[in-house]
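Most newcomers find our protein records easier to grasp once they have seen one. Read left to right, the backbone structure tokens trace the chain's path through space. Once this layout is familiar, the rest of the handout is easier to follow. The record below serves as our worked example for the rest of this section:


***
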Amino acid sequence: MSAVIVCDLDGVVWRGDTPIPGSAGAIAAFREAGRRVAFLTNNSSHRVADVVDKLARAGVPADPADVLSSAQAAAALLGTDLAPGSRVLVCAGPGVVEALTGAGFVAVPNDADPAEPVAAVVCGFHREFDFARLDRAATAIRGGARFVATNLDATYPGDHRVLPGAGSLVAAVATAAGRAPEVAGKPEAATVAMVRARLGTTGVMVGDRPSTDGAMASALGWPFAMVCSGIGGNDPTEPIPTPAPRFLADDLDGLVGAILAAGD
């Protein structure tokens, strides 16, 4: 079986709402060569159908089964020892609500009555984060709720500039609660297990962040294919590693020939 090509989304396929030139053609070329292409994102804010629709608008047909997210990994992490029907406070976006509900939990909105007990809090990227949401999440965690972060990416690549990411929100909650979170997304064990279960044991990890995508490749034992169309190589916090990754290009289109020629 040919190795699957697992692509990050933000900074690889698009920046914000703008498709990165050549990404759709590159994915088509991988598929024409017989490779399955799947998408693994630490951005937990969107529902799977929304990601599929955004891919379609970028010229990339995709099936819901091709989309894996840190929201799904967070729900799976909680599912290891939290009973179905448990109430989980959502300090995150609709993608986390969808994943928790699909795993059999009760997703409690962040504006719910603080007096209502919850078993866990999941914090992920969302643009509605404010003092009230910070207070509600921190109060629940200080009260004994389990604290799960979808991911710790401090930033993510927007259309025209670097924007605060989930890690920035998680840091605020952790500071207010006085407790560090369990982390579900790339490159943590919950995501490694999800990828292996759904996509198999052989693949190439394509991404723009050495600290997450590169570390994820290492955790899987896969080659890392790095693009410089997102954060990595353009932000002092995410330089191109030394030695450089096995595959390195300006963008996804620039990786196709080398990956296919290598047979990975």
Summary: The radius of gyration is 18 Å.
